[in-house]
Amino acid sequence: MKSLAILSILLSTARGVSLSTRGEDIQLFPADGAKNVNPDTQLKITFPSPPTIGSSGLIRVYDEADNKLIDTLNMSIPTSPSPFGNGSTKANYSDTTTYQTNIIGGLDFYFYPIIVRNNTATIYLHNNQLDYGRTYGVTIEPGVLKQGGFNGFTSNSSWTFSTKPHGPKAGTTDVVVAADGSADFSTVQGAIDWAPLNPTKRITIWIKDGNYEELVYWQYKTNLTIRGQSRNGTIVGYPNNSAFNPPNRQGPSRRPAFQMNGVTDVQLSSFTINNYYKGQAESLLVNGLRVVLDHMTLNGSGDGFTTYGTIYITDSKLTGDGDSVLGYGSVFWLRSEIDSHSAVTWTRTVQAQRHGNVFVNCTIIGLDGNDTFARLPDNTGGVMPNWPYAEVVLINTKTAGIAPVGWGPVAGPPFDTSHLHLWEYNTMDLDGQPVDVSQRLNVSRQLSLPKDAKILAEYTDPTYVLDGWTPVVL
Ligand SMILES: *[C@@H]1O[C@H](CO)[C@@H](O)[C@H](O)[C@H]1NC(C)=O
Ligand SMILES: *[C@@H]1O[C@H](CO)[C@@H](O)[C@H](O)[C@H]1NC(C)=O
Ligand SMILES: *[C@@H]1O[C@H](CO)[C@@H](O)[C@H](O)[C@H]1NC(C)=O
Ligand SMILES: *[C@@H]1O[C@H](CO)[C@@H](O)[C@H](O)[C@H]1NC(C)=O
Ligand SMILES: *[C@@H]1O[C@H](CO)[C@@H](O)[C@H](O)[C@H]1NC(C)=O
Ligand SMILES: *[C@@H]1O[C@H](CO)[C@@H](O)[C@H](O)[C@H]1NC(C)=O
Ligand SMILES: *[C@@H]1O[C@H](CO)[C@@H](O)[C@H](O)[C@H]1NC(C)=O
Ligand SMILES: *[C@@H]1O[C@H](CO)[C@@H](O)[C@H](O)[C@H]1NC(C)=O
Ligand SMILES: *[C@@H]1O[C@H](CO)[C@@H](O)[C@H](O)[C@H]1NC(C)=O
Ligand SMILES: *[C@@H]1O[C@H](CO)[C@@H](O)[C@H](O)[C@H]1NC(C)=O
Ligand SMILES: *[C@@H]1O[C@H](CO)[C@@H](O)[C@H](O)[C@H]1NC(C)=O
Ligand SMILES: CC(=O)N[C@H]1CO[C@H](CO)[C@@H](O)[C@@H]1O
After folding, report:
1. Pairing between strand 68-74 and 58-63?
2. Strand blocks (E) in 348-428
3. Is the CB of 409 under 6 A from ligand 10?
4. From ligand 10's centre to the CA of 402, what distance in Å?
5. Who lines ligand 1 at CB under 6 A?
6. What atom in ligand 12 is closest to the CA of residue 277?
């Protein structure tokens, strides 16, 4: 039996190890001595009451075979220029401070080395440091976590575990993620990192119900489906926003909880993505071609969902705090709901792209009672032209909480509004009764039959909206 500095009794249980310290228990995950652990595991310590996170001390992971230091988390390093996500949202390029940094899917992000939820401290090692077929020992210096008599693990043999001998076999197309470590991967990112770039057979990542608090990012992968066990039960999320992860000098946005960049032929189905921060904080950012979202729940704040490329969304729900769809993409929405404060979308269609956000048989709820479908504000103090080709088309939309003006503000330096497509056909209240559109913004337009039959036929066809792609929901 291994010795634990702080412990008088060691009790093994099936799922963890109960460690009695001054009459209090802590539980370790993976359990001390656990075998067949996934290398993407998080480390969890559950206390009798919530621990506090210290501002100094090291967490270190050693390879037991050769005592090689594999990973270090240094709690003296500040998390981010805005560790609570409430500071400046602008990049400060003269700031040379080192912050807690993790490379996720090839991009650097600021991250929390420890997150406490309820009584559990989850320790996030740097991604992709652990390997298959190894035994690791974890040390935690006093002061890293404070609760009761907990004094860390100063011996590198106090908390050890062994990883699986190997990962999924070559040629595997379906893998399962389970937060409790019982499947192929323990994190969504771990499974995505494993997925090959250009598989000739579609890869499906199945996520078992559970709470996956992790920042997810990947780029350039194709032919990939990510499917939750159940839409409400499979929850992936992270507290992140443009203050916590301000823009980098170059490269993609870093503020979403879940982001895919430069992907093709990807489908997300039946799970929930949350961003737990307010501000400019996407739940999801999609930059991709032929991306399907099906039975998804997205919960973000400002710019709650940002789009680039071609996206087909069906039977899904987005909740956001304003500009809830930041829309650069061509997106066909079917039977989906958006609940939003302020403007539901800021759509930035450019002329060459032809199509923006087209909603068919959707529901749009303004959460303040006076919100608008879309706005085109002056974002640059008159420096930049507005988005004169912005397209937002609502066909058979049920609404509540939308101001009588419906659209706007459309602002900025005067521009030719004749190319705007702020169009509605048959907008209804939640009971299906027509709404009064007499006070709509003058640059918006009501479509009607028979005059607009051709437009309506075109805009109810996803292939027309999505640049010739006919989406198939797998
Ligand atoms: C780990 O502990 C063993 C036994 O106390 C010791 O021999 C070894 O040097 C330690 N390794 C490290 C890296 O601290
Ligand atoms: C931990 O970070 C602090 C602050 O940056 C630094 O002074 C210290 O040297 C670091 N410790 C180790 C072991 O790297
Ligand atoms: C951000 O939140 C922290 C913790 O609540 C608080 O101490 C700090 O004053 C806040 N900063 C700003 C700029 O509001
Ligand atoms: C940017 O960072 C530098 C160095 O930390 C600091 O002196 C300066 O006040 C920061 N500027 C802003 C606008 O926060
Ligand atoms: C924290 O505890 C509450 C109340 O028991 C529970 O509803 C919630 O799911 C827990 N949160 C996490 C992240 O486990
Ligand atoms: C993607 O997977 C499907 C089905 O497994 C396969 O038919 C198709 O050829 C693959 N696509 C590419 C581009 O390899
Ligand atoms: C999922 O959660 C939503 C919102 O909390 C609720 O309205 C819905 O009934 C739930 N669905 C299921 C199948 O539990
Ligand atoms: C979305 O997330 C916020 C912040 O965590 C939370 O307050 C809100 O209840 C969530 N909304 C939904 C619809 O889940
Ligand atoms: C939208 O709903 C109407 C009425 O239920 C239905 O006839 C139509 O086929 C639906 N449109 C699409 C694209 O599914
Ligand atoms: C819209 O309603 C919100 C909440 O009731 C209120 O704070 C805001 O001033 C209103 N805005 C307008 C333009 O009426
Ligand atoms: C819409 O109304 C505004 C003033 O409310 C006016 O300046 C503008 O010229 C009008 N645009 C069109 C296309 O009628
Ligand atoms: C809004 C929110 O959930 N904020 C949390 C983000 O995560 C940090 C780190 O765990 C918490 O301290 C915040 O409360």
Report:
1. antiparallel
2. 357-360, 363-366, 372-374, 391-395, 398-400, 421-425
3. no
4. 11
5. 62, 67, 156-157
6. 1
pLDDT of the residue at 230 = 98
Q: Which ligand has the nearest atom to the CA of 113?
A: 12
Taking the centre of ligand 8 as the mean of its atom positions, its distance from the CA of residue 281, in whole angstroms, is 12
**Residues 6 or more apart in contact with residue 194 via CB below 8 angstroms:** 167, 168, 175, 185
Residue pLDDT, tens place only, 116-148: 999 999 999 999 999 999 999 999 999 999 999
The closest of 346, 265, 285, 21 to 158, measured between CA atoms, is 21
Expressed in angstroms and rounded, the spacing between residue 227 Cα and the centre of ligand 12 is: 26
| Topology of domain 5-75+113-163, CATH | Immunoglobulin-like (2.60.40)
How far CA 260 is from CA of 5, 105, 109, 215, 306, in Å, comes to: 44, 9, 14, 11, 11
List, for residues 396-440, the tens digit of each pLDDT value. Answer: 999 999 999 999 999 988 889 999 999 999 999 999 999 999 999
Which sequence spans correspond to the domains of the chain? 5-75+113-163, 174-465
Q: What is the pTM of this model?
A: 0.92
Give the Cβ contact number of residue 156 at 10 Å: 18
Q: Say which CATH topology domain 174-465 has.
A: Pectate Lyase C-like (2.160.20)
Q: Does residue 92's CB lie within 6 angstroms of at least one atom of ligand 4?
A: yes
